[in-house]
Amino acid sequence: MQGAPQTKKDRDALRIAMWISLLVGFLMLGIKVGAYIITHSTAILSDAAESVVHVAAVGFAAYSLHFAFKPPDESHTYGHAKISFFSAGFEGAMIIIAALYIIYEAVMRWITGLYLERLGIGTALTALAVVINGILGYHLVRLGRNKHSIIVEANGKHVLTDCWTSIGVLVGLGLTIVTGWLPFDPIFAILVASNILISGGRLLRDSIGGLMDAADPELHEQLVSILDKETKRRGITYHNLRHRGLGYGHRVEVHLLFNRNTSIQTAHSMATEIERVIEGQLSPGTDVTTHLESLEDHDEAHANHPSV
After folding, report:
1. What pTM value is reported for the model?
2. Whole domain around residue 258: which residue ranges?
3. How many domains does the chain contain in total?
4. Regions in the chain scoring below 50 on pLDDT
């Protein structure tokens, strides 16, 4: 359970999805740059800038996915899956950089003078980008969640962010076409940038939480529920429950307390059964380790060795 968590079929599906995302990213970049050249729209430029960042982020995410699937080795005895959180953090940082650039460019264009042309063609190209990115983003988020890959899910969220960026651009272009008021273009560019700043911030928060092993309250409640039920059935107790996210699953540690007359064979068998129940009810990448203790001398042992 410590190596690549998914089956080979799952891993292949994730890799293919990432490569499709990268190819579509280049296609979207080409469409948006073309639309900007045609229209000189600040909003479309902001959309194109986001796509530049997206392509760079997807490239890093694709490498991270490959690296995360490497099995444990002498220098990484717990495997390489933690790179998932680096990938999500990198993508979040890139989104924030793109948003700040968009705001800067929109303000400068507004100050120096606005010039737009052939908005109809630009609007059509942007609408095409919305449809393609919407379909791809939904697929990536669903696949990432189903296969427990934070890398693919984060990439899907970035694609959907790109989609919402394009929708905001479409609204701005539509209002500009209908009213003829050019400032709608930079205004919506700034609104779109503000939205993707929030999205990038969330990715960074999730990344930092994962790297710092922040506890998941929902997971903790689920584990307590499972352990309460399984230990009660076997007439034992537990304590010192700990867990951390791995990017694709979870690592769980818990101490099980047995009557001193319980044989090692019986205690080990019960512990193994409980481990399998937890692993079966959590994500496929979950790895559970139990520590067996005697109930009668448990307090004394912990008093002499507080770290145990």
Report:
1. 0.66
2. 217-304
3. 2
4. 1-5
